[in-house]
Each structure stands twice: as structure tokens, then as C-alpha cells.
């Protein structure tokens, strides 16, 4: 570098590129940076956590059984299908698209799974795979119509929302229902992981997370790349350990209403299913080319196209993932209720899932969102019917609250987006 | 004079009945900034798109490094080492600098992305261009100023060991200080031995960095001369009237479309 450029760049040298190594060096710096991000409208999962606190305070003050371990385990099971549905929706929301049919696609898929088990005697995993394959096909059809014909996804999926409700109605018949009592599939909701195995898994998850984080820290620090301060890494590991081990402890306690007579303890099987999906999709979104391209298409489709990304393929894949996850969610919902009825997946289900993704921090405008958003948001949303159910409220209240929560989440999203573009974060 | 890195010879292009380019010769020399100037509708964008491989030619040769090459599309051109930085930048606001620079050409290790290699290479490239205004390579592109965004877009083009970089109006939307940054960067690219094409309306910018000036007038090359042989007003005349003194199209009257 010549002396002359040195002087012309003097002002910019104050924020020179060399500052790069000097990332937030202490916890204090990291906290300040986080506050700046919040002020700039990058809220992350904060609205979800606040929402969870508010709902817990309200419901626990209105009903004394809300905070029991029995109800908390119930909440985890109820949240399962919402989390999974929302996780699938994150993929289409990242593109700035919407899938209104995801709920009923789950209902239709669960109907197929139940039918092939009952009428054709398929084993549970083959039946489940058949249901998920139906979901994938639905996604393929939606994605193709959206990308190849150029119909707005809102319209295509609204049409599918209406049409797919015909599937269970035709196959089951009005007013009927199919039992969903396979030991494994039904067991996802009503059976628990043995307490010892639960503890082992929880400890392994904490160790695994710590190992990945520390390994990343070491690689980045030694190669002089951008990295978090070590203290922050340790705090994050500690927080995760507290949450995972705390929940495991909570769910490992005997929660039977009559603890002297029988024992209900352990993590419900649905939780490991959700966690496995969460880890898998988080890896796909953050560590693979497909994930990177998905964000790119959601952020600026034209830029992605010019960079040589096959935008059509990315979009179709996102719809396939959303509908396949909807099928998994439909199976979990059937597992919870023990039956599939023509109304499965209809009603509020989809709006709950959209609300979950958005309140968790996924933007309706595309380009921003994570798989974990769906899980955090799903817990918040599941708390609503859980608490209202305990309070024995009329169902009109449920509709009002759901609508209100969705609107609130969308408002937070829109406002934070405006602040982001103003602050340029 | 050294051999041109890229040369178009006698290029014609029509869109239906409209003959947009007439026997255009255009050359890009290594280590030089060639400014492409011309009024709106003179054919600058068409010429750039032909170089970029987006449009085909009706006739004429595309010569790269002394070799006649056939170009079927943007990918062929990119494979030759020609990168185009478009005016509307083509960056994703929701991704950071490293992610944008490697977009579509990510480094992978196994099934996962190799973030470490990508970040190190992005940092190297930015440092080699003496880009010192970016706080962190992991900064989101949305938080960058116009000049910084332009810088990232140019660095993205340079990352792939390209030999020629075409810049379409790189300073059009920038303020004084940011224009300064980008022009410095343009100069540095040429000093590294790249062939740089600068498309610009701004004569001050052109005279500041260009070694050669190619002026287009109604689809014809009005002049292709070293910048030091021209004055500001001569270039304006070439752009608006197609000739200036001895320079330019000899019979402007016939040079209609």
C-alpha cells in the first residue's frame, strides 16, 4: 500500500478491514452488539420467549393445574405436530412464499397412512413412508404450478387447501374416523423414552453441542477468522445444557396424577423425533449449498439466478419439503388424537403453524428464518390451546386468540423489517 | 502496443428491423482501463451483453487472447475469465459478504460448506484489493454503503482469477467519497494486469481512470483512442455528434440507423 492511498483512506482506516479480527472480545461487547441488533429490528426469537413468559404467567395464574409436570409433558406432545408443520413452512416462508394447504396435506397424508395400515395391513413404517410420499407429491404439484405456470403460491395453495379436504372426506366418509392405534406411531405420543435412555441422550446432546462449538471456535481462532469470544461460547453451552438437562429432569419425574399407584415418567417419544428433525434441517439450512441457495433465492431471486443457481429447482424442493414435513406433522397429530377424521389438519392447524414460524423469528417477506424458530414458536402457540383447554373456554375464544396471535406475530415481523431496512442490519 | 486480451471484430447486431451495432470493433488490453462511452441508445448495453454472452452476434469475431472462440452463453464467457458487474449489483441483502462472494460457487467439504476456506479466500481477495472500508467479512450486505456494495460486487468478480472485468456504471448511484473508493479500486484492478472495461456517463470518472476511450455513436465506433489524446469536450462531441475535428465517423450524414 502506497503512502498516498494511506492518506486518502485515512478516514476509512478508522474502521479498517484489519479490525476484522477484533470481533466482540468480551461478553460485554457481545451483549452490546446483541442490543444493537435488537434496536435495529433483528429480534430473532425474543418475541417468542416474551410470548411464552406472558402466556405462562397468565395461564398459571388462572389455573393451578397449568404448571404441573403432567400438563407440561402434555404441552410437549401437543407442540410436536405444530413444530414439525412450522419447520416445513419455514422453507417456503424463506422464499417469501406461503403454503396454505400444509395443514390439510398433513390430514390427507395421515388418512392414507391409516387406511393402508387398517385395510391393507401394511407395517407402520411402510405406511408412514407412504403418507410422507403422498405429502412429497402434493408439494411437487404445488411447487410446479407455482414455478412453471407462475401462479402465486397463495392462490395455488388455497386451491389445494380446499381440494385436499375432499380426500379424507371421500376416503373416511362424513362423520366417520379411522383409528390410529399402531403401537409405534400411537406410542410416539402416549409412550415415553425410558428415563435412563433419556438422560443419556440429553447428556450426549449437550456434549455434542459443546464439542461442535468449541471445535469451531478453535479452528476459527487459530486461522484468524471471525469468531465469537470464548466466554460467549461457554455461556451458550451452559444455557443449552441448563435447558436440555432441566427439561429432562422435569420430564423424568413421576408425573402420574396418582404417583403412589402407577408411574408416568420420561420424555415423550415425540420430542426426540422433533429434535432429530430440527438438527437435520438446521444442518441443511446452514451447512449445505442447498440451504445457502434457498436463502439467496429468498433474499434476491435475480441475484441468485445470475449466480447460476437453478431458482426453479430450489423453489420446487422447498414446497416438497414443506408438504413432506406436513405429512410427518399429520402423523404426529393423528398419533396424539389416536384417530384420523375428515377434519384432521383443517381449522386452525395451518394458522397455528404459520404463527409459530413467524413468532419464532421467521419473516413472511422471505430470506430470514431458522428451523429452531419453528420449535420455539411452536411451543408458544401450543401453549394457547393447552391453556384455553384447561380453562374450558368456548371454542370461539380459541379462534379469537389464534387470529390475534397471528396478527401480532405478523405485525412484529413487519415492524422489525422496517427497522431493519432503516438501520441496514 | 501489447496484444489485446479480448477483441471483437466487425460485430453486427440487429433486433428485428433495428440495426443496433454496425461493424463494431472493440478491444480490451491487459492492465488498461478501457472506457466505453456513448449516449443512451448508442449501443453500449448491447455491446456489453454481447461480450457477456447474453446476446449472440449476427456477424463478427469474438477473439480472446488471440484465439477465435465460440461463445454460446454467459457460462462460456465466465469460463474464459470474463466477469460482468451489473449496475443493479446482484447481491443478496440477507447474506453476508463471504456468502455473497461465493454465491453459486460455494466451496464444499464432504456434504457441507467449507466456511473456513471461503472466509479465508474472501478476506485474501479483499485485502489484495486493498479494501479497507469493510468492518468484517461476516457483515451483512444490507448494512453496507453503496460504495462498499459496489466493492463487494467487484471483489466477487475478481475472486475467480478473472482476466477481464466489465463494470456497468459502477459510480452512478454513489456519493463523492464512495465514487473515489470505487475508482481507486478500478485503477488497482488494471494495475494487477486485468483488462477493465468501464461503462460510464461521467466524463470526470472516465478521464480519471481510463487509459483508452471507445466512443459509440448510433451503433458505430466513433473513436478508439488513448485517453491522453482526448480532451473533455472532444469526448462530449464524439458522444453527441459522432465526430470531433479529425476524429470520428467521416460522414455522419450516412451514419443513420
From TrEMBL, chain A:
<feature type="transmembrane region" description="Helical">
    <location>
        <begin position="229"/>
        <end position="249"/>
    </location>
</feature>
<comment type="function">
    <text>Part of the binding-protein-dependent transport system for D-xylose. Probably responsible for the translocation of the substrate across the membrane.</text>
</comment>
<dbReference type="InterPro" id="IPR001851">
    <property type="entry name" value="ABC_transp_permease"/>
</dbReference>
<feature type="transmembrane region" description="Helical">
    <location>
        <begin position="124"/>
        <end position="146"/>
    </location>
</feature>
<feature type="transmembrane region" description="Helical">
    <location>
        <begin position="374"/>
        <end position="391"/>
    </location>
</feature>
<keyword id="KW-1133">Transmembrane helix</keyword>
<dbReference type="Pfam" id="PF02653">
    <property type="entry name" value="BPD_transp_2"/>
</dbReference>
<feature type="transmembrane region" description="Helical">
    <location>
        <begin position="75"/>
        <end position="95"/>
    </location>
</feature>
<protein>
    <recommendedName>
        <fullName>Xylose transport system permease protein XylH</fullName>
    </recommendedName>
</protein>
<feature type="transmembrane region" description="Helical">
    <location>
        <begin position="316"/>
        <end position="337"/>
    </location>
</feature>
<keyword id="KW-0472">Membrane</keyword>
<keyword id="KW-0997">Cell inner membrane</keyword>
<feature type="transmembrane region" description="Helical">
    <location>
        <begin position="349"/>
        <end position="367"/>
    </location>
</feature>
<keyword id="KW-0813">Transport</keyword>
<feature type="transmembrane region" description="Helical">
    <location>
        <begin position="193"/>
        <end position="217"/>
    </location>
</feature>
<keyword id="KW-1003">Cell membrane</keyword>
<keyword id="KW-0812">Transmembrane</keyword>
<feature type="transmembrane region" description="Helical">
    <location>
        <begin position="153"/>
        <end position="173"/>
    </location>
</feature>
<feature type="transmembrane region" description="Helical">
    <location>
        <begin position="44"/>
        <end position="63"/>
    </location>
</feature>
<feature type="transmembrane region" description="Helical">
    <location>
        <begin position="261"/>
        <end position="285"/>
    </location>
</feature>
<keyword id="KW-0762">Sugar transport</keyword>
<feature type="transmembrane region" description="Helical">
    <location>
        <begin position="397"/>
        <end position="415"/>
    </location>
</feature>
Automatic annotation (TrEMBL), chain B:
<dbReference type="InterPro" id="IPR050107">
    <property type="entry name" value="ABC_carbohydrate_import_ATPase"/>
</dbReference>
<dbReference type="InterPro" id="IPR003439">
    <property type="entry name" value="ABC_transporter-like_ATP-bd"/>
</dbReference>
<protein>
    <submittedName>
        <fullName>ATP-binding cassette domain-containing protein</fullName>
    </submittedName>
</protein>
<keyword id="KW-0547">Nucleotide-binding</keyword>
<feature type="domain" description="ABC transporter">
    <location>
        <begin position="6"/>
        <end position="243"/>
    </location>
</feature>
<keyword id="KW-0067">ATP-binding</keyword>
<dbReference type="GO" id="GO:0005524">
    <property type="term" value="F:ATP binding"/>
</dbReference>
<dbReference type="InterPro" id="IPR003593">
    <property type="entry name" value="AAA+_ATPase"/>
</dbReference>
<dbReference type="Pfam" id="PF00005">
    <property type="entry name" value="ABC_tran"/>
</dbReference>
<dbReference type="InterPro" id="IPR027417">
    <property type="entry name" value="P-loop_NTPase"/>
</dbReference>
Amino acid at each position: 500500500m502506497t503512502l498516498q492511498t494511506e492518506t486518502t483512506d485515512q478516514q476509512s482506516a478508522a474502521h479498517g478491514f484489519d479490525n476484522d479480527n477484533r470481533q466482540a472480545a468480551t461478553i460485554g461487547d457481545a451483549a452490546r452488539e446483541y442490543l444493537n441488533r435488537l434496536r435495529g429490528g433483528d429480534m430473532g426469537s425474543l418475541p417468542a420467549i416474551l410470548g411464552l413468559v406472558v402466556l405462562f404467567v397468565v395461564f398459571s395464574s388462572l389455573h393451578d393445574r397449568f404448571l404441573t409436570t403432567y400438563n407440561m409433558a402434555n404441552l410437549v406432545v401437543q407442540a410436536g405436530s405444530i413444530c414439525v408443520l412450522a419447520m416445513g413452512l419455514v422453507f417456503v416462508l424463506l422464499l417469501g412464499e406461503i403454503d396454505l394447504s400444509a395443514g390439510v396435506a398433513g390430514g390427507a397424508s395421515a388418512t392414507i397412512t391409516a387406511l393402508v395400515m387398517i385395510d391393507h395391513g401394511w407395517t407402520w413404517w411402510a405406511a408412514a413412508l407412504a403418507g410422507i410420499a403422498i405429502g412429497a407429491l402434493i408439494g411437487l404439484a404445488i411447487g410446479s404450478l407455482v414455478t412453471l405456470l407462475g401462479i402465486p403460491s397463495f392462490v395455488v395453495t388455497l386451491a389445494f387447501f380446499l381440494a385436499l379436504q375432499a380426500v379424507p372426506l371421500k376416503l373416511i366418509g362424513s362423520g366417520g374416523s379411522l383409528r390410529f392405534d399402531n403401537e409405534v406411531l400411537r406410542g410416539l405420543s402416549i409412550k415415553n423414552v425410558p428415563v435412563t435412555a433419556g438422560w443419556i441422550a440429553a447428556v450426549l446432546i449437550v456434549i455434542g453441542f459443546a464439542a461442535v462449538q468449541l471445535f469451531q471456535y478453535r479452528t476459527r481462532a487459530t486461522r484468524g477468522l471471525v469468531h465469537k469470544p470464548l466466554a460467549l461460547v461457554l455461556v451458550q453451552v451452559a444455557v443449552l445444557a441448563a435447558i436440555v438437562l432441566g427439561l429432562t429432569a422435569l420430564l423424568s419425574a413421576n408425573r402420574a396424577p396418582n404417583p403412589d399407584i402407577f408411574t408416568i415418567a420420561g420424555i415423550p417419544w415425540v420430542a426426540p423425533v422433533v429434535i432429530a428433525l430440527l438438527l437435520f434441517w438446521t444442518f441443511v439450512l446452514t451447512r449445505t449449498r442447498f440451504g445457502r441457495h434457498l436463502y439467496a433465492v429468498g433474499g434476491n431471486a435475480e441475484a441468485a439466478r445470475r449466480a447460476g443457481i437453478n431458482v426453479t429447482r430450489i423453489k420446487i424442493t422447498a414446497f416438497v419439503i414443506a408438504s413432506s414435513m406436513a405429512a410427518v406433522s399429520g402423523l404426529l397429530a393423528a398419533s396424539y388424537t389416536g384417530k384420523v377424521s375428515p377434519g384432521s389438519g383443517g381449522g386452525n392447524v395451518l394458522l397455528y403453524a404459520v404463527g409459530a414460524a413467524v413468532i419464532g423469528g421467521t419473516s413472511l417477506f422471505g430470506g430470514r428464518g431458522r428451523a429452531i424458530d419453528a420449535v420455539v414458536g411452536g411451543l408458544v402457540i401450543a401453549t394457547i390451546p393447552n391453556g384455553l383447554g384447561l380453562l374450558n373456554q368456548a371454542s370461539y375464544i380459541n379462534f379469537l386468540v389464534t387470529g390475534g396471535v397471528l396478527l401480532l406475530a405478523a405485525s412484529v415481523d413487519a415492524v422489525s423489517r422496517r427497522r431493519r431496512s432503516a438501520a441496514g442490519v | 502496443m501489447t496484444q489485446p486480451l479480448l477483441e471483437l471484430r466487425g460485430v453486427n447486431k440487429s433486433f428485428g428491423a433495428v440495426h443496433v451495432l454496425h461493424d463494431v470493433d472493440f478491444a480490451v488490453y491487459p492492465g488498461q482501463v478501457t472506457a466505453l462511452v456513448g449516449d443512451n441508445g448508442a449501443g453500449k448495453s448491447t455491446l456489453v451483453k454481447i461480450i457477456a454472452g447474453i446476446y449472440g452476434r449476427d456477424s463478427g469475431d469474438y477473439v480472446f487472447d488471440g484465439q477465435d472462440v465460440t461463445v454460446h452463453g454467459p457460462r462460456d464467457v465466465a469460463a474464459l475469465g470474463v466477469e460482468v458487474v451489473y449496475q443493479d449489483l446482484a447481491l443478496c441483502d440477507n447474506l453476508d459478504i463471504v456468502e455473497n462472494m461465493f454465491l453459486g460457487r460455494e466451496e464444499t467439504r464432504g456434504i457441507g460448506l467449507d466456511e473456513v476456506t471461503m472466509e479465508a479466500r474472501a478476506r485474501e481477495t479483499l485485502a489484495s484489493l486493498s479494501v479497507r472500508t469493510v468492518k468484517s467479512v461476516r457483515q451483512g450486505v444490507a448494512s453496507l454503503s453503496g460504495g462498499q456494495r459496489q466493492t463487494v460486487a467487484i471483489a466477487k468478480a475478481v475472486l475467480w482469477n478473472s482476466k477481464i472485468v466489465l463494470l456497468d456504471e459502477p459510480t452512478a448511484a454513489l456519493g463523492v467519497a464512495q465514487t473515489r473508493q470505487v475508482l481507486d479500486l478500478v485503477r488497482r484492478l488494471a494495475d494487477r494486469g486485468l483488462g477493465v472495461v468501464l461503462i460510464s456517463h461521467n466524463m470526470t470518472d472516465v478521464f480519471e481512470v481510463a487509459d483508452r476511450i471507445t466512443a459509440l455513436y448510433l451503433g458505430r465506433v466513433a473513436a478508439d483512442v488513448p485517453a491522453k489524446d482526448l480532451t473533455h469536450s472532444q469526448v462530449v462531441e464524439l458522444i453527441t455528434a459522432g465526430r470531433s475535428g479529425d476524429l470520428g465517423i467521416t460522414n455522419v450524414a450516412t451514419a443513420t440507423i
